[in-house]
Amino acid sequence: MTGQLHLNAFLMGVGHHEAAWRHPATEPADLGSVAHFQRLAQIAERGTFDSVFLADSVQVAGDVEHTAAERFEPLTLLSAIAAATSRIGLIGTVSTGYSEPYNLARQFASLDHISGGRAGWNIVTTAGDRSAQNFGLDGARAHADRYRRATEFVDVATALWDSWEDEAPVRDRASGRYVDPERVHEISHDGEFFRVRGPLNSIRSRQGRPVLVQAGSSEDGKAFAAAHAEAVFTAQQTLGDARDFYRDLKARAVAAGRAPSSIAVLPGIVPVLGATAAEADRLAAELDDLIVPARAVAQLSEMIGVDLSGRPLDAPLPPLPSVERINGAKSRFELVRDLAARERLTLRQLLGRLGGGRGHQVVVGTPERIADHIEQWYAAGAADGFNVMPPLLPSGLEAFVDNVVPELRRRGLFRTEYAGTTLRDHLGFARPENRFAHAQEGEGRSVSA
Amino acid sequence: MTGQLHLNAFLMGVGHHEAAWRHPATEPADLGSVAHFQRLAQIAERGTFDSVFLADSVQVAGDVEHTAAERFEPLTLLSAIAAATSRIGLIGTVSTGYSEPYNLARQFASLDHISGGRAGWNIVTTAGDRSAQNFGLDGARAHADRYRRATEFVDVATALWDSWEDEAPVRDRASGRYVDPERVHEISHDGEFFRVRGPLNSIRSRQGRPVLVQAGSSEDGKAFAAAHAEAVFTAQQTLGDARDFYRDLKARAVAAGRAPSSIAVLPGIVPVLGATAAEADRLAAELDDLIVPARAVAQLSEMIGVDLSGRPLDAPLPPLPSVERINGAKSRFELVRDLAARERLTLRQLLGRLGGGRGHQVVVGTPERIADHIEQWYAAGAADGFNVMPPLLPSGLEAFVDNVVPELRRRGLFRTEYAGTTLRDHLGFARPENRFAHAQEGEGRSVSA
Ligand SMILES: Cc1cc2nc3c(=O)[nH]c(=O)nc-3n(C[C@H](O)[C@H](O)[C@H](O)COP(=O)(O)O)c2cc1C
Ligand SMILES: Cc1cc2nc3c(=O)[nH]c(=O)nc-3n(C[C@H](O)[C@H](O)[C@H](O)COP(=O)(O)O)c2cc1C
Known about the structure:
Chain A is of the alpha/beta class and 449 residues long. Chain A has helices at 34-46, 74-82, 101-114, 129-132, 143-162, 219-228, 239-255, 277-289, 293-304, 330-342, 347-355, 367-379, 395-410, 423-427, and strands at 6-11, 51-54, 89-95, 119-124, 169-172, 177-179, 189-190, 195-196, 211-214, 231-234, 264-273, 361-365, 385-388. Chain A has one domain: TIM Barrel (Alpha-Beta Barrel), CATH 3.20.20.
């Protein structure tokens, strides 16, 4: 159990708390500043985090008026971050709903080349009619269709990443032969959603392919994760639920023929840090006072796919539809429903509970308290590591790196330096085999055929 | 005429000569090295170039075996270059054939934010069945359809870039109001190829939108350029042809209601430099000796859309089809046809003429000779500047910056330092007006409506 914990820094504007930009500890100009994000990654790298992570969406926020609007696109921003860091992994979100596998495969291969093997792809399926309407559709595809499309998308992308064997480039100056075309393969994919000939126009990258990350926790989401994901982000409110989720996912991976250790399960944690418990409580209260209720209701409505606008704030939630009828994020819907029921929360109280972390676990306290929480969940088999979501940035990440990370190291839970150079190295994963690598001459159609 | 010349550095692997990677002055490892490209951009920035430019395609090369295979994807690579430079413009190619306007608009807006206003988009329509087959099609769309799609694509993208007025972010910490939603606009585009609701999920970028660049010289290509392009790359073999092209394009721009100065016409030039004429000739001969004829024939076939493989090298070209029947790059086809006929070239001789520059003007000689050529074309009204395509990289770019640029400066043709910070500043263009900027309250559908 020593040194095995994994930490990802989820970078989000000037902080994960929805009112972070209103808090005096943040600098509004940071929201649109690439230097800010480069600095955050450097702080996380100083803390030997496995990776940084950028979320993404393809539409404006539900409540435009109260949402900090600056937004970089993940692949471009991560490429700029790559240039300012050397070891830390770089995980970016791209939806399988609204892009082409060939374009996505190229951009992630490129990021993996640029960063020397540090790329990861957070695979999302994107609920939301408003997103669909930016891409020629009337509304979002059905939940099951989205996951079927995601599965095929990943199949195509991984085939493209394999389409060049490592030995394909021969680079023989004397003869002018750069490539052994026998080792470059068409993929000839013809499926329900995509038809792609291949090969990719990029040699195989340092990691073979980016680390595949996933963050959907519905039934379909878990099945997808068990089959494809190498790291899983998840929002969990209680240790019991987290442990159940963890066991379930590992069992599914085993059923899919994979080793349990081949998936890192990383629940989110929002660490609200103070030198004393009182100081941390004060910060938490300051932040929650800055929440704009209308905005929080809009965000919650969007997150769970149920319109709660206009509902009385000081009453319990209205009766909610059954999860089968939700075409949004099913797992987040269930989490919110269960949290409200378990703690008998009014809408206003629920918003307070969610404002800091959008459903992720908020832990308020001293560095020791946060380290205790991390150790407890880790030791209990509820997590392989954590997706760290500081409420304020950069201050919350700095506080974590300067105070919580040393404590985790002292306890022998976390690395003191990087052992390798790629994100796969940090996560303890081998470079994936190439499906074409042991093909005999003439097997599988190569570009020379 | 002082200081008005524009120079773009077209970055291509270890050089534009097709056999560059075989030449001892290049380093094969540079092909896959982001540091190499960052260094090239820094050299060009030292030479106060307006911009660097990356070409792109969405398929493997026609002759995989003899093509240097390393390839970065432009938007990711330019983002990494942005982090290593501060002034130089960053122009990347993305096809309108195989991506979605919403995704493209976001990535270029992001690059423009990341670079502080240095982004440019080279708009290409992508001929080639092999590309189409990576995106679910049986073969390339017809030439005219490609340009109709490009036109609609650019309309959608520019509307998305306008969808946030500059004043939309109000960032009022006290009230929690970040955005004035009256200044954020849906675009509600519903056309032949695309249906896009908008708005973009990005505030307006430093330049308003990236500089729009174009490089198709067919009739449809010129019509498109006259309507939309702010810079045009073109391959021209003779001063006469270049002047005709220049005049034609400026006249078309005027007919479209634009000022002639609103389009910069930049013919390609491949400067093969030597301290003496003899040294330059020697380098040119060395390079041409390294051409692999089969590869050159494959590239030429692909470029003009006519299969010339298996044709005798020492005979004239076979009769070529009429340009109407070409579904590839029509203008490049005409250039090659006319060059072969004018100089009565055999196929082998033609390959020699094209190997250095794929149809662009190759000028072999001393820095003075290159500067003379540039000055002559510029003064004759054949060019607003040049797309500089060094045969070897980095050495050819270094030689140009160290020897030709000072000569151009001495002659008062080229800037000695950057006057502004954005690519638009370098090109002398104003920031575009936002179509929504002067809408009265309630006019145009805003997200708050
Ligand atoms: C930490 C975390 C980050 C996420 N990031 C994104 C994101 O960037 N974009 C997105 O569309 N969804 C994101 N999601 C949502 C999930 O990927 C998933 O789409 C959602 O939970 C719906 O899937 P489900 O119905 O399987 O739960 C994230 C979820 C978690 C837990
Ligand atoms: C300098 C230059 C660079 C070009 N770069 C690209 C490129 O990166 N990708 C591409 O598909 N076409 C590229 N082209 C080709 C043109 O954009 C255009 O697609 C082609 O000439 C066909 O258009 P046409 O039929 O109008 O001539 C380039 C052309 C020139 C002159």
